[in-house]
Amino acid sequence: MVEKDWKEIGGIVREEIKNGMTQQVDVTGNAYPPLKPNTVASRKGGSAKRLIDTGNLLESPYPTATASQVEVKLGPQRAQIGRYHQEGIRPHTIKAK
Asked: Which of 9, 59, 88, 92 has the fewest CB atoms below 10 angstroms from its CB?
């Protein structure tokens, strides 16, 4: 494979990541668990969708390719958000605004 092929694969992976976020399913095809009512109430517009409240994380995956590989990364400012989504954070109470 050449760099052009890796770039194409990276673009496909990027779209799959975005589709999963939009459709609210994880990489294995399982639906995200629903947000708790206080979480929804605390969000601007009361959106119940995970990861796309502002759209910043949705647009952040970007592929970089070389002649031998491709990496799809999140923008550095968004990588922490993805980690919290995957691993969670300490238990706490969210108060509705």
From this structure: 92
69-77: long-range pairs with CB below 8 Å, 24+? 69/6, 70/6, 70/7, 70/9, 70/10, 70/13, 71/10, 72/10, 72/13, 72/14, 72/17
Contact 63, 13 (CB under 8 A): yes
Contact 71, 13 (CB under 8 A): no
How many alpha carbons fall within 13 Å on the CB side of residue 94? 13
Strand 70-73 with 62-65, pairing: antiparallel
Choice between 88 and 2, residue whose per-residue pLDDT is larger: 2
Radius of gyration of the chain measured on its C-alpha atoms: 16
Measured CA to CA, the distance from residue 25 to residue 29 in angstroms comes to 5
User: Which tens digits make up the pLDDT trace of 56-70?
Assistant: 778 888 888 988 999
Residue whose pair of structure tokens reads 């459709």 in the numeric block: 23
